[in-house]
Amino acid sequence: MNGLVSLVGAGPGDPGLITVLGARRIGEADVVVYDRLANPRLLDGARHDTEMIYAGKQPDRHAMTQDEINGLLVERGLAGQRVVRLKGGDPYVFGRGGEEAIALRRAGVAFEVVPGVTSAVAAPAYAGVPVTHRGVAASFAVITGHEDPDKDESSIDWAAIAGGADTLVFLMGVKTLPQISRQLIAHGRRADTPVALVRWGTTPRQTTLTGRLDDIAELAADAGLKPPVVIVVGDVVTLRGPLGWFEERPLFGLTVVVTRARAQASELSRLLEDQGAEVIELPAIEIEESFDGAQVAGAIQRLAAHEYAWVVFTSANGVERFFDHLASTGLDARAFGGALLAAIGPGTAAALVQRGLRPDLVPDEFVAEGLLQAFGGHDLAGRRILLPRADAARRELIDGLEAAGAAVDELILYRSSVPADVPAETLGRVRSGDFDIVTFASSSTVRNLASLLGGLEGLNGATVASIGPITSATAREHGLDVAIEAEEHSVPGLARAIVDHFTREEADVNA
Fold it and tell me: Which of these, 129, 177, 263, 369, is most buried using a 10 Å CB contact count?
């Protein structure tokens, strides 16, 4: 049985611009064949067993030729696999998607096209340039800049292009910018026509250079501008001032290292990216199962028998793993019966709510000491408390509960370890100091990153951001100067603290 090949547009760079159908197809794929300009973050949506094949092309080297790509898609489709061909932008806008579709049709392989947001529209929009605007531009054209306009066989009708649309958008044209400018002026376009060059549009690396048709090539050469660049020619470029937004975000131009576990990094990454930051995810923690089966079974049996007055959760990981064990015994949330629930913070509370349980106690300060203080109004004498949590966690919570007269059953469900498979490229970038901010959401991330890097001396030039005082103390023990500490000890609180720090810093600079 033949498979299905989906020609999916990855969008212009911002991973949030993938279509809903495109993201779904990635999640269903057996194989993903992806391009250089497809944001690698999109691959996180694939199954863990999905085969990833890089088919990127750069002007001076190709990982695969187009014929090889066509052959690969046909081969995997005939083998019955679900294949995603992930292409930057839109598959049919200078993406050679049509050639791939023809090859598949000829081989009898079923295919579909999932359009993507093209950089021809998105990059100018992120740079504050609408390709059309009432009273300024009623039409636009998209032209390839990849061919040499001076060659005899050029397919570009420069006379028609120069006067045929109000706004001209050239893709892949930075190398031929001098010829593009010369041809447009020669065929009647005003020499003073505004031009914008948008590099790495829609990403935190975006830069925008503006000029006139008669000087933009020189300005680009002086700036050393290299691909990928979208070229916008037309009076709409003058709107960039009032309509600029993306490059005004508080963290724009800053690179942040996120050290949370791979499965947990997305929330902090998203919050920081929403404020304009480029995020490097370097998972310094790997969560591993670590439990005694008999101990787990005994705790669940006592829970179902209503022997616990309280169940205290100190992490979303603990919630997830405890409920997995609960389900494996055929039980669900009803097993908690009359037990009261405590959660150390909003993230842990949200994990409980997702499973139909609302915690009775969440402290104002999201650390063990804050939880103990919140318990101050409750009589714990003679009460039995279940505490599902990680191995080697701090003793303060157990000691405090026992001092209040409680009998605590600590239930170890998992442990955090140093990941064994951190990408060498990511480690290399962090070692080189190619970032501005490093975040720590727990003491374990500090210790584990020190292990991965062989010490944290190389981080001293970066701004260190910590989720709270316990983590800050660990960072200082490793020789780091903590510049940012979240007042609310949560992931959203950490993101807000980073934004507030750099907003104040910008205000001080402009004062």
Answer: 129
- Whether 57 is a known active-site residue: answer yes
CATH of 288-417, one of 3.30.420.40, 3.40.50.10090, 3.40.50.970, 1.10.3720.10: 3.40.50.10090
pLDDT tens digits, residue range 49-93?
Answer: 999 999 987 665 668 999 999 999 999 999 999 999 999 999 999
CATH, domain range 255-285+421-510: 3.40.50.10090
pLDDT digits (tens, 9 = 90+) for 179-236: 999 999 999 999 999 999 999 999 999 999 999 999 999 999 999 999 999 999 999 9
What's the mean pLDDT when you consider all of the chain?
92
Q: Where are the alpha helices (DSSP H) in 329-367?
A: 346-354
State the catalytic residue, choosing from 14, 30, 172, 409.
172
**Homologous superfamily assigned to 121-246:** Tetrapyrrole methylase, C-terminal domain (3.30.950.10)
Q: Does residue 35 carry a catalytic annotation?
A: yes
Beta bridge partners of 127: none
Class of domain 4-117: alpha beta
Q: Is 52 a catalytic residue?
A: no
Residue 472: exposure state from Cβ atoms within 10 A (0-12, 13-18, ≥19)? buried
Residue of 14, 30, 35, 166 marked catalytic: 35
